[in-house]
Amino acid sequence: MIPAVRALARAAMAARPVPLADVQARAELLTRFGASYLVPVEVFAAFAAELTDRRRPGGPFAALCINGRRWFRYHSLYYDTPDLRSFHDHRQGRRLRYKIRERRYEDTGERQFEIKLKGRRGETVKHRQPLLPGDAALGAAPRGFLAAVLDRSYGIAAPTDLGRSLETDYTRATLVADGQRITCDAALLCRDPENGRTVRADGGLVLVETKTTGRPTEADRLLQGYGVRPAEFTKYCGGLSALRPDLAAGHCRRAVRTAFPTAA
Known about the structure:
This protein is α+β, with helices and mostly antiparallel strands. It contains 8 helices and 11 strands. This is VTC domain-containing protein. Residues 68-243 form the VTC domain.
């Protein structure tokens, strides 16, 4: 087993299990602030042990559990314009930026069409719509949903020339406390749909993302206490930069090299 997968599995098994309904009630956080960290497995193990410690003031973090499982396989397919407008808008930090993707939960078969926006205060706002079996991710209904979201949120028209730009696969465990959610991802594999080229993330790193309505969180303070600083890294921009090195910008190059050391 990849060391990072083993580490997140151990962390999830050490926590009290909670069902999806409880996670959504306590910390669904479709609108949230967040930060990303590339955490070595040794640090992640100590960090997770502190969060799931039963003596933690306020109670320990719990782990999402569905049908007896506490870690799950995710597949995402991102869409962008031929000139990668979404990618460049994110890399340049434009305020009116968004990502479009189809997410598939491999262990349940559920599919969601998702749009992630940036709010006025820099928060992430996620909009999603279920996809039924056989539905095309860029069919009439999802395109109508996309157009409505972008018009309502930004007052702009949706792009019409969307195509597949990146596929990702990874394993995730989710830790949750009231108003806080921490996603822990490992074994990230990114694939270029055009040519089939792939890059695999360092198996000794866990990608930790903290998500809350406020900032910083206890998890942020803990990680920074271990000397781990927030990374300029997202799966979309990081994966695409690793697959196409000419796209890597200076401010994110270090994080991309850390996450994908073999890509260079």
